[in-house]
Design goal:
Ribosomal Protein S5, domain 2; 2 domains
């Protein structure tokens, strides 16, 4: 691999290091077409939000990877701790590429909703690579780590960078934008489960697709226009997911009725977020949403402009 530093035989030490792994939402998501290899060309505006998992890592005396998971309240999905987990895949990739003799113990405090369209698995994988770079003193650049990460998932490089970013290609071509204007966010995960593969397959079968105005959205972000940004939110995948899961449309309508200036499904769903300019309306919406049935997790949060400035 390009950038390989060769065999690493560092001595074992029991220092434990910790890092936050931040979730994302899509302020805009457009699908431009399907490649022959099955991947889709996309154009997305990604935004880090203040919901995060916390990973703690230390070296093991052997070459094994062990993962311990603590789920937060409201999470009912099972999370594998074996080779199917993206943390495991990321750790194994770094060990293989850089010939590490020792393995890692990883403790994960899982808060980001699972299978929710918020890149929970991808951000954990990104944090794993960043932690191993520090723990083993590999000296990898962000570019090198992003090249590793994209082999695990298209969202992993973005999760290493964070902030407000235009993502193109399959999601790996990243162009940082000016930070989005600060506002209040209500993020709600309903209890339904959505298959990302099914959503994209169903989208491929549609003859006509209404594409969101991402250029207009970028302009509103640049001009720090919260209301304009909220009015330009768009996710082409909603055309599939909302028709099959009416609760998504219901959550959007509920947020708008309670003062949100815009609401959207993130990724392939089913998580819905609303943008609020009034903190009182945000708090009232949060309290009302807590009384509704069919919701597994709910958060009040905001945008995060710089993940490196946030301390674990």
């Amino acid at each position: 691999m390009s950038g390989s530093i060769g065999i690493v035989r560092k001595g074992l030490y029991m220092k434990q290091i910790t890092r936050r792994a931040y979730a994302k939402i899509n302020l805009g998501l457009d699908v431009l077409g399907r490649r022959t290899n099955g991947y889709h060309d996309v154009r997305m505006i990604m935004q880090t939000v203040g919901i995060y998992d916390e990973l703690s890592m230390k070296q093991r005396a052997d070459g094994e990877i062990r993962i311990e998971v603590l789920l937060s309240d409201g999470q009912t999905e099972e999370l594998a701790c074996d080779e199917h987990n993206l943390i495991y895949k990321a750790a194994a990739l770094v060990m293989r590429e850089y010939h590490l003799e020792h393995g890692v113990d990883v403790s994960l405090k899982k808060t980001i909703p699972i299978a929710a369209g918020m890149a929970g698995g991808s951000t954990d994988a990104a944090a794993t690579i960043l932690l191993m770079n520090s723990l083993y003193g590999l000296g990898l650049s962000k570019e090198q780590m992003c090249r590793l990460g994209v082999t695990i998932g298209a969202d992993v490089p973005y999760c290493m960078i964070g902030g407000t970013v235009l993502a193109e290609g399959i999601g790996e071509i990243l162009t940082p934008l000016l930070p989005a204007p600060q506002c209040g966010l209500l993020v709600v995960k309903p209890t339904v489960s959505v298959s990302t593969a099914h959503v994209y397959t169903a989208l491929d079968s549609k003859e006509k697709i209404s594409h969101p105005d991402l250029n207009g959205l970028i302009t509103c972000i640049r001009e720090q226009d919260v209301a304009g940004m909220a009015g330009k939110l768009g996710n082409v995948l909603e055309t599939v997911t909302v028709s099959e899961y009416p609760v998504i449309a219901q959550l959007k309508e509920e947020m708008l009725s309670m003062g949100a200036v815009g609401a959207l499904m993130s990724g392939s769903g089913p998580t819905v977020f609303g943008i609020f300019q009034n903190n009182g309306q945000l708090r009232a919406a949060f309290e009302k949403m807590q009384t509704l049935e069919g919701i597994s997790q709910i958060f009040m949060t905001n945008f995060v402009a710089d993940i490196e400035a946030e301390k674990a």
